[in-house]
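Now for a specimen:

…
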Amino acid sequence: MTLAIASPVGQRRQLGWGLAWAAAFAVALGLYLLRDRFPWIAAYPTAWIIPVASWINATMGPATDLLFGFTRSITAILAVPLNLAMNLLSQGFQLGDGALAVPRRLRRRRAGRGVSPA
């Protein structure tokens, strides 16, 4: 069995981070309370705004146009086995005039009665 000894180094680290967060909160609160005296605190300069949203839209527009047909073709390819399985297992389908019809539900006998439902 090992003996756990409290380390003052770990406690100092936790205290340091707590003080850092407390100082950051105090600075933010001080700037909030002084927003009437310094107008640059409340109004962000429009010259400093980076137009990242327009850059993303300009890049994604052609990328979407390029990949749209590709993704739709993958969807169509994956839909074929899915539709086949759905029709075979759940909904039922007919091939031709009905000679190869697969029923929608296979009827089972009720447990204990030995009689199939009508």
